[in-house]
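Thread: Newbie trying to understand structure tokens

Hi all, I'm a second-year student working on a class project, and my supervisor (Dr. K.) asked me to get a predicted structure for one chain before our next meeting. I've only ever worked with sequences, so writing a 3D structure as a token string is new to me. If someone could post the tokens and maybe explain what I'm looking at, I'd be very grateful. Here's the chain:
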Amino acid sequence: MDGELGDLLRSRRARIRPEEVGLPSYGRRRVPGLRREEVAQLAGVSVDYYVRLEQGRGPGGPSRTRSGGVSDAVLDAIARVLRLDGAEREYLRAVARPRRQASGGPAGSGVRAGVRLILDGMDRNPAYVLDHRMTVLAWNALADAVLGFDGTGPEERSLPRRTFLDPASRDLYPDWTAIAEQTVAHLRLQAGHHPGDAALGELVGELTRASEDFRRLWADHLVKPCDHGVKRLRHPVVGLLTLPYETLTVPSAPDRTIVAYAPEPGSETAERLALLGSWATSHSA
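---
Reply by user tm_fold:
Sure, no problem. This is what the structure looks like when written as tokens:
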């Protein structure tokens, strides 16, 4: 158990005022939010137990599961007190009971031929495959026309690196701040599920050192999956694209997801994508 659990618990109790949970505030507090003993009281665990959780020393006593992790009952109680949403609860379980796993293979491997055929068959939808580190592993022609993946290496296809280290990303995304927050929130969720992934840890370290924006957002402990939504992109050829997207997990490879952009048929964005597809075809002929 490392500092991720303690950081999460501290950040979440700091955002809850005592009066919100029916406790007296006793005037000005040295630090904002709930005290450790208050969280313990509301969750129905001993103060020592909760303190050990925050300090990363691991709990002792009967609330441990046979495998040595924190019990579901305790995690659910703490999540309730700290008002965690679904993604945050999932992350809490992941960092409280980290799985033993290998560091993972190199980005860019493990996309089956059948998945590539599916991508190529989506000729009206830009689509690509991501790994858990948010590196693009495979893509179709329209995704390349929109985002420019061909001829790039794995580091250049890393969406976190593109977002925070490439100045052009701020021109590409009119809503760059929202994109940056989503990227960090999803990356932290993946880090919780892959605690032994050295390459993922190195990516986080690199971005923390190189980007003040990433460092600030990472410290906020944002946790949220990027499973659907809308992105706006300013393309240099066809202009503004408003792209709803959905993500689909590859059943045979749970750490691989297909991201597909699906603009409304007949919309201005759909027409611009059709134009972009024709332009890309003519320039590749």
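A couple of things are worth pointing out once you decode it. Residues 176-193 form the longest helix (18 residues). Residues 60-68, 102-108 have pLDDT under 50 and may be disordered. Feel free to ask follow-ups in this thread.
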